[in-house]
Amino acid sequence: MVEKNDKAVRLEQVLLHLFFVLASISIIYPILLTFIASISTEQSIIQKGYSFFPSGFSGAAYKYLFETNDILKAYWVTIRVTVIGTPISVFLTSMAGFALSSKKVWGRNQIALYFYIPTIISTGVVAWYYNIAYVLKLKDTLAVLIVPSLIGVYNIFLVRNYYKTIPDSLSESAELDGASPFQIFFKIMFPLATPITATIVLFIALGYWNDWYLATWFIREDDLYPLQYYLYMLHTRITSDASSSQGSGTAIPINTVYLATMFVTMGPIVLVYPFVQKFFIKGIIVGAVKG
Amino acid sequence: MSNDIRTDVNETSQTAEASIGMNSTSAQAVKKMRNNKFFRVLKNWQYYVMVLPAVVLFFLFSYMAMPGIFLAFQRYTITGGLFHNEWIGFENFIAFFEGPYFWRCTRNTFLINITNLVFGTFSSVLFALLLNEMNSAKGKKIYQNILFLPTFLSVLLVARFLDLMLNNNRGVINALFESMGFAPVMFYDTPGPWVGIIVFAYIWKGVGYNLIVYLAVISGIDREIYEAAAIDGAGRGSCMIKITVPLLLPTIIILSLFSIGRIFYGDFQLIHAVIGTTNYALMDSLDIIETYLFRSVTNAGAGSAPDYGTAAAVSLFQTLLGFIMIFGTNTLVRLYNKDYSLF
Known about the structure:
The complex is a heterodimer. Helices cover 75% and strands 0% of the residues of chain A. Chain A has helices spanning 2-38, 42-48, 60-67, 70-101, 108-120, 125-135, 153-164, 168-176, 181-192, 194-210, 213-218, 227-244, 254-290. Chain A has a domain at 69-244: MetI-like fold. The relative contact order of chain A is 0.13. Chain A is an all-alpha fold. By secondary structure, chain B is mostly helical. Chain B has two domains: 2-64, no CATH class; 99-306, MetI-like (MetI-like fold, Orthogonal Bundle). Chain B is built from 16 helices and two strands. The interface between A and B is large, with 95 and 98 residues.
């Protein structure tokens, strides 16, 4: 009886592993396929399609990619957006969250409501677009890729809730020693909030790196294409090229260039993923429990 | 207003009492001074400076957009700007309701979201339950990390992966069909299966994230319940169905209710990445309110002036639907459990 039970449990575990191995393959498969297809020859893509076993290998796509500076330009836009946007966003979000967590601030709940109202009563995407494009006149600027997403209500509340868990006595004793609110924030509270800060740094940086929504609405100048939007436009170009004339006789290996661009776009993310994922998972759990 | 002051007085007197290191005579005077709201704001001005940038940004990007709603009631012209157009009442709304896009976009938005709600929730819970049943802690961790990877990838890449698989001429699936002797399927010209494909993509991208939320809830369940059940002779399967699932139910219900609140808001990014502005074949099942709005605002393809009037009307219509859904679900949440309600 016991033996049979053991066998059943083992079979169960094997089936569970099988299930998750299949699920994991479905995740890794397209990433690997992108890479292999990007180093195959253009001919192979046109004849055999995207395949793990191309008829030949070639580095022409990567050579082309780094000879023309389109992708580098797009990279440079994305890097600027991420590097400028992330610290400002984290800094402003942390300060606002800290101020809203302090019991000394009269009207803090009203201010929180002020942040929350646009979520409930959204103006709709047209008014939003009209405001940014024609009232604030931010179309085709680097700023439009950064500023609209500097402050998110979810992050403010996440940070505020974290600061609320830090005992008041800490800031009160610092105040008695003559510390100003800014000193309390920078010298005591901000260092104590490192776990939540790390989480929002990652969320915000990833948001900037992966963003193409803002570019889709506001960027029409190719000099300002961020990486993701560049990839989108490249794909659009391929589809129209393919429908107009097969191959069109150009020397550019457009299909493999597109695949190489895909790989270069996700490369950094996949590389840093193992090192940062645990902070994300912690952050999600904090958010899920608190919010 | 008087109400505000009263609560303020209560609050301050409490903080004054709570504050330490203050002798009783000066405490009286300070207490009196502190009761003054103006004094309190003035003394803590630095806190207000801290929150000011966020307040300004919200004003610029959210509150300043609000007058744009009026475009819904105007015949928009470029020279008219926001306020100097002809006011035409509900004409824009009527044009939208009578046009071909109203039913198609509203239906598609709703269908994609409801399918995703049902299957997305089901698969997230299933994955969490199965992973929780795994004995090997190492395996658990590895699978969780791999499944979480797509959370990091942009929506655009997910759309491009779909293209790798489903491309009419070069896709993996059509190559497979061909090698098995079937005729290739022109996925990008066949709207039928796309609601399913899009929902699959959402699950592919999101299951790792949702898994973590559900696993966190499961790990919070008291172990003693399972031990007691095991003593009574319950197997792992019945423990899962009779203990874990019922205890997950509150989380499932709450998360679902929030999704229902947003059921008329489509996800622009993935669908736009798939259909762009030109794949008319797929629009039968994938054109949602957001993609329609994008086309009419940016007016990609056509040569005429952008139709802000109708677009703003559609946007307002959607906001109203969203408003009704949010208040409706909030009422439902309150009925279910007051603590979980938003307001």
